[in-house]
Amino acid sequence: MSQLTPPSTSEDKHRRINIFGLSPNIYKVYAVGSARVYHTQFGAKHNDWTYSRLKGLLVFGKDRVIHSSEASSGSHVATDAEKYWFRLVDETSGKTVWMFKVPAGFEYHLDRPFFHIFAGRVRHPLHFGLSLLTYMFL
Fold first, then answer.
1. Going along 42-121, which residue ranges are E strands?
2. Contact (Cβ atoms closer than 8 angstroms) between residue 61 and residue 22
3. Which pTM does this prediction carry?
4. C-alpha atoms less than 13 angstroms from C-alpha of 15 in its C-beta half-sphere
């Protein structure tokens, strides 16, 4: 697994963001790290985690603007808290393989120094665990 090093210049930051296909004028990226996604059912035993086979670069970011398709549907206007998300990007293809939009009232727990836990949405009653191998804040 490759080690992540902090970008040394503003130009390096933009180059890294573009690798993920995230245009800086639409998204703000706060942190990037090498990670694996795990899941477990609500109410499961503390250590009953299943590896999802999803791994890659985890990006934590926020929408700067609401996408036109979301705005035109009119069904829901995102609160500021709901504009945050996690994306897991495949290191080889650069494509997003998993995405989680942070809901209002989001609770995030640090189970161990490298293992972070949060609840999924109501439709998918899962807890997610992120095993972070390396990370950096931008």
1. 50-63, 84-89, 96-101, 108-112, 115-119
2. yes
3. 0.72
4. 7
Which of 40-54, 66-80, 91-105 is predicted with the least confidence, judged by mean pLDDT? 66-80
Q: What angle do CA 31, 36, 37 make, to 5 degrees?
A: 100
Name the one residue in this structure whose structure tokens are 């931008």. Answer: 138
Q: Is 11 helix (H, G, I), strand (E, B) or coil?
A: helix
Give the pLDDT band (50/70/90) at residue 6.
very low
Q: What is the mean pLDDT of residues 117-129?
A: 78
- The rounded distance, in Å, linking the Cα atoms of 132 and 56 is 10
- Residue type, position 91, single letter: E
The helix/strand/coil state of 69 is helix
CATH number, span 10-137: 2.30.29.30
Place of tokens 């697994």: 1
Q: Report pLDDT digits (tens) over 23-39.
A: 667 888 888 899 999 99
End-to-end CA distance of the chain: 20
pLDDT at 64 over 50: yes
